[in-house]
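Run Probable cobyric acid synthase through structure prediction, thanks.
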Amino acid sequence: MTDKSTKMLLVLGTASDVGKSIMVTGLCKILSEKYRVAPFKAQNMSLNSWITKDGKEIGIAQAVQAKAAGVDPTEDMNPVLLKPKGDRTSQVIILGEPYADKSAGNYYDSISETMEVVKGALDRLGEKYELIVMEGAGGAAEINLYDRDIVNVGTARLTQAPIILVGNIESGGVFASLYGTVALLPEDIRGNIKGFVINKFRGDPAILEPGLRQLEEMTGIPVLGVLPYYKLNIPSEDSMAIYSKSRNTSSECLNDVDIAVIRLPRISNFTDFEPLERLAKVRYVEPHEDLGTPDCIIIPGTKNTISDLLDLKATGMDKQIQKMYGKVPIFGICGGYQMLGKTLHDSGIENGLEADYEGMGLLEVETAFGEYKKTTTQVKKKVVAEGPIFRHIKGEEVWGYEIHMGKTDTPRTAFGDDGSIDQSGTVVGTYLHGLFENSNVRTALMIYLTEKKGVEFHPEVATTEEEAYKELADIVRSCLDMDKIYAMIEES
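Sure, done. The structure for Probable cobyric acid synthase is below.
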């Protein structure tokens, strides 16, 4: 295991989407003032991923947590990443590299070998950092998984770290979920729970006081604090977050612009569009729904381009998108880019059989899936696209990261040697995830959309990542008993 001088803290939750990731992010920011801190999550199941400087793929939450701690994200911070593909199958990413597509049963058959990967990653982090802030996954008390759980019980047993248990009051039953989780955890883990945190509370925390005191009396575990419901400019961790997104955010955005993002069945990296939520009404449209009259359409990335393309055709969404051609800008990111082309050739990598598929035909590009090989890299490109959207920023630099299979041939690129744009300059495809994190791209798009609609453009007040992390840290620091947290870390 790690060096004995390495301190550890483990944050577990009573369920998914209770706020474990965001709390770890805040703690990483605060604790980095005293320690050299690294985040860690043994196993993550998420379609929102990130590419490190070394071209390794990890969950986006650990990348965010690392940046909050002021360190570079590495594959050791999330040694196992599961990317669901549907049909009970996930792509298994080991130490940032695609390993295999496995069913749940086949994956758990090799869980002892996977645990060795986890141990190695922790050992390497322990050599570099003074404190590792670890995160569990889902609910900690999944009693059917105790013999093969590497991320909650497995990490707890491996490290014997002090545990903070987080519950979400917004969904109700927070006292029962906290008490029940403690009761169901194995005895050798239960004793390491050193504090509770209640998250996403709307109202006066004083109302909770009688319940907090009773919970402490019943369990002997202190409540470290109550965190309010808050919304920050920090990417969402996983697919659970997309369900909580409002379908109408016009009251929260700056501009009277409607952007429709197609909610693909196997959508990935929907965090690409969260920067636009501050500026426009971003709504997620299911393939079977009416597209309405958006001012812009975005087809996002997907874990399986061919399957999602076929779903769009089966529901008629492809026809709805094609009817909007020439009326509104249409963007395709990664798999969405591939769908906008003329043809897609699958050698069996995507859908199991060799076949050619007809795309939407809005871009003069062709894509081939020739081998089980993924492009994963961070890139910087110059805007070379012609047309009305990017005319003010042509020649400027944009940043992004690529995570895709397949190669696409295009006669007309959009960003350096990447992507494609049609002759009108209003249909754009690119492999660049994170495109809308570039303020110049966001501004160029919003100026075009507001001018075209004839409404006033309201620019955003830019917020840096560092400012967002500081704001989160201030909330966490003000609401939690940090003295007790520091004490449990030192005692570890």
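The chain has two domains: 7-233+468-491, 246-453.
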